[in-house]
Amino acid sequence: MASAPLIDSHCHLNYEGLVERQQDVLANARAAGVTGFLNISTREREWRDIVGLAEQESDVWATVGIHPHEADKHADLGRQVLRDATDNPRVIGIGESGLDYYYDKSDRQVQRDLFRMHIGVARETGLPIVIHTRDAEEDTVAILREEMEEGAFPALIHCFTASAAFGRAVLDLGLTISLSGIVTFKNARELQEFAKEVPGDRLLVETDSPFLAPVPHRGKTCEPAFVRNTLEFVADLRGETSEDLAAGTSRNFFNLFTKAKAPA
């Protein structure tokens, strides 16, 4: 019997540490049973290469968007520029976008304005927005609530590390939550407890590679192949089999990212 599909719902295949050996990285992951990759953009100059890889590899998809760290450099990015970049059929999501008040690499108001612009394009196109949030729970929830009142849009919180209260608030708004290798860390007890709460139809897994390698790979450059370690850890936490969780998270991915095509 074939193994259930397993999707790495957030990776940066064009980042240093992976891009130099991109084909080997993909081969390693496929050998580990990974059947799909969502390659995430963080700045406009990446879009061509990220979309280009998705055009070359049938199991790789792309997003277009601006990370909050890059907001100041893209303060004048026109809404239509982002909208036009979504027209490629290999682009299945917007982002990553959001708010990061931990590093404060960009002006907070610029971050908020750009986040709202991304949400508007997500609403207009129907493509999910992939949200980064760190030390910005209050503003993130406030913006999401306000924008949902203007019209619903699909969205997920990637690499969830926030409080359980924040998690429950975004689940109430209809968002999906994605867990990274951080959930496997010994000091992630609160996150591990919350992972048990997430409804099965709102859960994804990811690597955020080349960052955040899960146990037992901590200290190494993270690769999409390692998503299996995160999946197995979360399955054990939730009292599920890895096969069932892989099937469920894969199904959730294709339900959310409706432009992607599930493997036959």
Automatic annotation (TrEMBL):
Which CDD domains would you find in this protein's record?
TatD_DNAse (cd01310)
Provide a Gene Ontology MF annotation, just one.
DNA nuclease activity
Keyword Flavoprotein assigned: no
CC terms in the record's Gene Ontology section: cytosol
Q: Which residues form a coiled coil?
A: none
Q: Which domain of life is it from?
A: Bacteria
Q: Does the keyword Metal-binding apply?
A: yes
Give the keywords, sorted. Hydrolase, Metal-binding
Q: To which protein family does this belong?
A: Belongs to the metallo-dependent hydrolases superfamily. TatD-type hydrolase family.
What is the name of this protein? Answer: LuxR family transcriptional regulator
* Biological source species: Aurantiacibacter gangjinensis
